[in-house]
Amino acid sequence: MTIFIASLVAAGIAAAAAIAVATPLTPRPGATVTTAHPDFTWRLPFAEDSVAIFIADKPDVTAEGKFYDQNFVDGADVFPGVGEWSPARPLYAGEYWWNVLSTDPSTHARFYSPPAEFTIPVALRLNRITAKRYSFPRRRLWVDVIAAANVKRPLLRARLLHGRRIVWKAAHRVDGNIIPGAYGFYWYAQRRVKQATRLRLIVSISSGGVVRTRSLVVRAP
User: Taking Cα atoms as reference points, which of 128, 120, 90 lies closest to residue 210?
Assistant: First the structure.
C-alpha cells in the first residue's frame, strides 16, 4: 500500500512537472503581427524563473522542446523575473514560432513551452519618388525612390509612358529596408523622344503578390 501511494505521488509530481511551462500571452498563438519588433509576453508557473526566449522559422523541436539550431531566427537570455522581451533586430515578413525556456530553481528542472505561431504579413511602402533632368554630357533622367519593405529582396520597377506607349522600363531586385531607404534609376533619352515631352513615370515595389505603385508627371530631358 505504501509503495502504491508513493507511486501515485511520484506520478503526480511528474505530471505537474510535465505541464509546468510558460504560457505565451502576446503574440497569441496564430496571431498576425504588423510590427517588425513584436512585444513578446508570457506568464510563468508558480515558483519558476524565465531563462530565455527563442524565435524560429519552423515549428520543429527536439525531444526536450528546443528549436533546432538551423531554424533559429532570434532570441535572448532573460532575467529570472522577466516575462517580456522585444527583438532589437527587425523581423522580416514570414511565419514564425516562439517559445520560452523556464526553470524551477528548487530542482533545476528546465521546461520549454510549446511553440506558438505568429505571422508577419508583407508590408511595402513607396514613400516618395522624384525625378531630375540632366542634359550634359547626355540627356538623362535620374529617378530617385524612397521605399520601405519588410522582405529581403523586393522587386522595384520603373516605367515611362508617353500616352499609352511605354518609352522605357527597368526592374531590379533590391535589398529590403524596413526603415525607408533610397534607390535609383537612370533613363537615357532616345532621340525620338523630344526634349520637354510630357511623360508619366510609374514606379512600383512588389513581393509575394503585394504591390504598391506611385506615379509622377515628368518632362523628358
Answer: 120
Residue with the three cell numbers 530631358:
221
**Separation of alpha carbons 192 and 186, rounded Å:** 18
Question: Contact 199/141 with Cβ under 8 angstroms?
Answer: no
Phi, psi of 119 (to 5 degrees): -130, 140
Do residues 188 and 139 touch, judged by C-beta distance below 8 A? yes
Binned at pLDDT 50, 70 and 90, residue 19 comes out as low
- Measured at the alpha carbon of residue 131, what is the angle toward residues 127 and 136, in degrees to the nearest 5? 155
- Considering the chain, tell me which residue range(s) the CATH 2.60.40.10 domain(s) occupy: 21-120, 124-219
CATH for the 124-219 domain, from 3.40.190.10, 3.20.20.210, 3.30.565.10, 2.60.40.10? 2.60.40.10
Beta strands in the chain (DSSP E): 23-26, 31-32, 40-43, 49-56, 72-77, 84-85, 94-104, 109-112, 116-120, 124-134, 140-149, 155-162, 165-173, 181-188, 198-207, 210-219
CATH class of 21-120: mainly beta
Each residue of 164-217: pLDDT tens digit?
Answer: 999 999 999 999 999 999 999 999 999 999 999 999 999 999 999 999 999 999
pTM to 2 decimal places: 0.82
Rounded Cα distance between 109 and 106, Å, is 8
For residue 67, the SS3 value is strand
Taking only the tens place, the pLDDT of each residue in 120-137 is 999 999 999 999 999 988
